[in-house]
Amino acid sequence: MPRTVDVDPRMSLLDLLRERLGLIGAKKGCDHGQCGACTVLIDGRRANACLALAVAVDGREITTVEGLATGEELHPLQSAFMEHDAFQCGYCTPGQLCSAAGMLGEPGPSAVTDDLLVDPDLTPEEISERMSGNLCRCGAYVNIVRAIEEVAP
């Protein structure tokens, strides 16, 4: 749903979401774009909300973890995360989910792709590489990859 908010030009997208709009799914982990806890989708592409200025996303579609589900129906990634126990403390989970949703829509090779001329299968190695910008202090990576692998095309 489109929203109009007057903001200080120095305010980050993360602070706007959390402090002004009450969307607290995206977390402030490092506030330096290094952990991925604040990952949201901007026009369907992954972005660290702590690094984006709120004024820079004027008119663009922002999707947070709160917007992944359709009504009462969970997004397939949310269901897979629950099924595979892909979280422990849960702090990184919103960022992991948004990053995974964006990653699934981003074709092309990664740093671990053997043949750079083809769109690779999303193997556990490919998924791990593509999700490497999202840290999990609890070490739930194996189950996160399994959950994403279940949903991947």
TrEMBL record:
Residues 1-68 form the 2Fe-2S ferredoxin-type domain. Keywords: 2Fe-2S, Iron, Iron-sulfur, Metal-binding, Oxidoreductase. The keyword Membrane does not apply. Pathway: Alkaloid degradation; nicotine degradation. Signal peptide: none annotated. It comes from the Bacteria. This is Periplasmic aromatic aldehyde oxidoreductase, iron-sulfur subunit YagT.
